[in-house]
Amino acid sequence: MFTTIYILWLRQLKRFFRSKTRIVGSLGQPILFLFAMGYGFGSVFKQAGQGDYIQFLVPGIVAMSVLFASIFSGIEIIWDRQFGFLKETLVAPVSRLSIMIGRTLGGATVAIFQGTVIFLISFIVGFHPVSIAGALLAFLMMLITALFFTAVGTAIASTLRDSSGFQLIMNFLIMPLYFLSGALFPLAGLSGWMERIVYLNPLSYAVDGLRGGLIGVSHFGLGIDFAVMGIATAIVLVIGSHLFSKIQI
Amino acid sequence: MIEVKNLIKTFGKSNAVDDISFEVKAGSIFAFLGPNGAGKTTTIKMLTTLLEPTSGTIAVNGFDPVHDEREVRSSFGIVFQDPSLDEELTALENLRFHAVLYRVPKEVRQQRIDKLLEIVELSDRKNDIVRTFSGGMKRRLEIARGLLHHPKIFFLDEPTQGLDPQTRNRIWDYIKHLNEKEGITIFFTTHYIEEAEKVAQEVAIIDHGKIVERGTPDEIKKKANAGSLEEAFLSLTGHDIREESVDAGFNQMRQHRQMMR
Q1: Roughly what angle, to the nearest 10 degrees, separates helices A53-82 and A202-215?
Q2: What is the CATH classification number for the domain harbouring B139?
Q3: Number of domains within chain B
């Protein structure tokens, strides 16, 4: 069981670190957002009396890189299916659950790595976390978020037969999740319908938790953030492993 | 070693596999022949736990693929019709991954890997990423991988598809050698009927999901009054060209994959 989990975890890491283009590509978008948004909206944000936008934005950008990386890791199952490797793991005399756990941990590790790199890069643009303890809390939230979205990706990929659904997921799930999460704007004072959507979006709690840890400002409160993400992650892991165990080739 | 009784697999309204029964004796070489879309791969998927039968019973090494998945999976090695290697890993890493999943004891792991790499003549390429391999090299690596855990049964779904005659001969020589020396039961499909005629002791011909003929190559030739197994095959299954379902998503997938990297 543990060796199976380990070898699958290791595989995810090797695949990621070997693909230079994937590393650069996956960091490019968050960095672009960080610079363009950070400097672009900085003065407007300040004039509106909200303080330093970079401070506000960095937790949202860290969440972005974790979100993209972990969903992508989960979705990789479609490619393993298409390129045949999934069959090799599915006919092996090991439980599907341990395969799923290994993959999920591997995907989450890659996502945390990317989130951490973005976090470190943000120091260049002048970001500074309020406390070490807070940063550790934020790291824990990053871990939960990574597990959550890797499991979401796994669940989705387990039900897709080919890649045609992939763009659909990017455009109608990932981007809306991101833009309607409070990663880029404050949640206080949103209009009614938008507030409802944002409150239903798990990423809002992940971003809020990261923000609470990193800059000490949170909308829902850290307790609620961790409770919501913890419960949501547990549910999605169960659904994901169920769907994964039902895959037929 | 393999016993199949009244096996049926239905997709939607049509029966991909329509009430077939056959058995494969331990230590024999069994060829499963049929035109495209006849039900060969669907049958292999059911034998190897990848697909649940609609009805009928299967015993692989005495175990039922539906209920004793784990025992069945430990009993066989397989070379799939389509490639199933991780192309981003090296040959050695692919083999090690397999050895861990199949619990090959650590003490013998490296030794077996080295031996198999030598046999399939990939020792000097073992640290290369599989993406850089030719089709024949990938196939050879898959064969080595399928044998790593010393299976009792070896399934080969069109193992020589798209390979040159030299490589094909080499692969068959090795498979025959395995069968004779290790007593591994071989179950294979192929479109090269002359290969089946040369190698197989037992043949079953499947068409439209039904087994239309069974026996040794000689018996089948005699019954069909044909000079070669290929002639017999054509007279049994007709001369119409069959369509194989094409995976339309594949090319699109490649594009997305490139894009995301």
Answers
A1: 130
A2: 3.40.50.300
A3: 1
Q: State the ipTM, two decimals.
A: 0.84
Segment 222-241 of chain A within 8 Å of chain B by CB: none
Residues of A in contact with B145 (CB under 8 A): 88
Task: Identify which of B50, B85, B261 has the shortest CB distance to residue A85.
Answer: B85
β-pairing, B55-60 vs B76-79, is unpaired
Q: Which residue range(s) make up the domain with B57?
A: 2-260
Cβ neighbourhood burial of B201 (10 Å; 0-12, 13-18, 19+): middle
- The DSSP code sequence of B182-241 is H--EEEEE-S-HHHHHHH-SEEEEEETTEEEEEE-HHHHHHHHT-SSHHHHHHHHH-SPP
Q: How far is CA A160 from CA A82, A177, A233, A244, in A?
A: 11, 20, 21, 11
Task: Say if B73 is an interface residue toward chain A (CB within 8 Å).
Answer: yes
Question: What is the pTM for the complete model shown?
Answer: 0.85
**Cβ contacts from A onto B, under 8 A:** 97
pLDDT tens-place string over residues A1-31: 889 999 999 999 999 998 888 888 888 989 9
What is the pairing mode between strands B29-33 and B202-207?
parallel
Give the Å distances, CA to CA, from A11 to A115, A180, B91: 20, 33, 13
Q: End-to-end alpha-carbon separation of chain A, Å? A: 23
